[in-house]
User: What shape does this take?
Amino acid sequence: MTYEYEDVVAWIHDRLKFGIRPGLIRVEELLNRLGNPQTSLKMVHIAGTNGKGSTTTFLRCLLEEQGLKVGTFTSPYIESFNERIAINGKEIPDEDLVALAKQVIPIVEEMDRDEVLFNTVEFEILTAMMLLYFKQKEVDIVLVEVGLGGLYDATNVIIPLISVITTIGMDHMDILGHTIKEIAYQKAGIIKSHVPVVVGKVSDEAFFEIASIASEKHSVIKRLGVDFVGRKRSVPISWGEVFEYKSQELSLKEIHIPLQGKHQIDNASVAIEVFTLLSQMLYLPVRNRDYQIGLSKASWPGRMEKVSDEPLIVLDGAHNEAAIDVLVDNLKTEFKDKRVHIIFGALGTKNVLGMLQKLEEVKQVNLKVITFDFPKAMKQTDYEAIGIKSYNHWEQALIAVLSEVEGDDLVLMTGSLYFISQVRQTLLGG
Assistant: This one.
């Protein structure tokens, strides 16, 4: 193959044809042939059904405020493929991705000829490229998001300074299990021996499973709502949230975050707790005001993101039932006095009917569903099969909604992150 950027990305995407292949044998071998770059990196490992991206963003901003060079590995991407691998919020340049490909692709193709190691998948390749890149760039710390689950995820080759589990919900049940306990077991698979664990908003059933595994690993565990808390404050603000944070080690009276929704208080609180532990491990000279300054710089595309004031248009990638639950709660509390126009597009792999039924719980809701250009997206025939009329394109639905908007109505576009990405590209040129 020729090592042009477009060819490299196409080659990586082509590995999707091998599907999801749980297990670490291929990525471990690939990293071994690359010199095991993961062994020389300081890392934080972040798992969870939802909240990984926001928590990573908050934590990155806090660490950057200390002058650190912070690598992040996230998925899926919203604006461009390269954003999955970034340093201090700046995505990997095309030429650096190509340089990595020149090192990695020949090894993968050689492994393809092995009857045990063949068919390394896209996420495994990206994980190896990410770790190699951050070693080469000598970053100070890397924030690694789990791709799917935890125990058998390709990222679980790392030994982090801290493990994080943000939330536990019913998603990817065909792979992770059909009960909260089973899914929690998979997420808790990232816990390593004697490595502390920070846990966000999870049920008691999920926490019991996580705590049991942490105990087996002799890992100290910190739980939101028990060992640290974030409480919303009723302070007038145009967008975002204000809250106070308390733990045994720290008290912060008034923290402003520019991300909307009570769940973002939970995510920011988890990030604060992780950052506090890291500051002790890394001997960072943190002042209380550093928390406010760092968190105030956080932004996360496609998560309760305001893209227009008049009319008020918000994008939120609530892509599974757990995320829809959070979104509905936010709509009932933060926007309870507004009429809400929702444009919804989802993947057919989700419980779409269940998600729509939850959205219809919102008072004064005007709900429109759409199909969009993505292989696994719900089609008009899929919606018809469950008795729902849909629009052929989100732009048609938006035109219809804008003709119905009055006063300070909210226009919310939600569902699949792939759908939200397409909307952003059109509305914002992202």
